[in-house]
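Fig. S4 source data, part A: sequence.
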Amino acid sequence: MKKLHSPLTYFVVLFIFWAKLYLVPHFDKRYVLNQCTIIKIYDGDTVKLYCPERSKEEREVVLRLMLMDAFEKDQLSYDGKRIGEESTLYLKKLLRNKKKVFVQLEKKDKYGRSLGHLLLSDSESPFERVSYQMVKAGYALIYPQTVFASKEEKKIYDQALSYASFTFNGVWDTQGAQAPWSFRKTNKVSKKR
């Protein structure tokens, strides 16, 4: 006669399966919050960081902020305002007094830049993300191909964009501007750093 497994065995197997699906990514090195120092701000969505906690060859990181696309440095609004420069200046203002920032790295893009989140504190709240602050201030848009982690996260960013337009922040205080991704395409701007 074949011996049946106990309910405890099934529970353990299910727990291991669940843990691999839901817990392991949080312990994956990519998802660890790295404490870093800002070396340089290239524009409204790309910064260079020094992260001493990372391996020697990975300590300097060029980070492209995820979930948003900031206006290009030389981009003007339709009424001639320097919306690209304003976007860069706003990012500098956000990070001005930050001795340390927190970085959550996700992956690399086709230019070799790291993609991830820059946080104003060690909280993983979307409200602490610099990308959220840039969208809410009207200096960045939500990139159309953005894949959000959840419906709630998408809702938070959509609300930030609505807030910016309703309160006439950033680009919403102009006669409008070409979307950054369209501007790059028509002006052949390279995002490579």
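Fig. S4 source data, part B ends here. Strands lie at 33-43, 46-50, 60-65, 69-70, 101-108, 114-119, 140-141.
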